[in-house]
């Protein structure tokens, strides 16, 4: 009986460990973003990044990205294959549109959350600061 119990415990432990791999993407616990020094944006979402080229926003965005996005999109915006490599996200309005869509609506593929909704959890100011950092890391294809 103890061998069966030990085996069952091993199987259960393996399932718990492997479930983290299955459900790990999209379960990021958002971290607060201190946006002191950035102009407030209000409640209405902007269509374009109001902080483009703002070095203070890039600095805030770097910290916020590393705390909230790097787990899936990779350190320094270099993906390890789990999520899109954001270095190649278009600069300017087209990239802003994609970014806004993802952070405000998330992404669900085949019923699985691939990216959680961050709008309302992280402020618009914090999210546009993250976009500023991502755009500062851009490389051309």
UniProtKB/TrEMBL annotation:
Residues 1-24 form the signal peptide. InterPro entries: c550_proteobact, Cyt_c-like_dom, Cyt_c-like_dom_sf, Cytochrome_c550/c551-like. Keywords: Electron transport, Heme, Iron, Metal-binding, Signal, Transport. It holds the Pfam family Cytochrome_CBB3. Gene3D superfamilies: Cytochrome c-like domain. Residues 56-138 form the Cytochrome c domain. NCBIfam families: c550_PedF (TIGR04494). This is Cytochrome c-550 PedF. It comes from Methylobacterium komagatae.
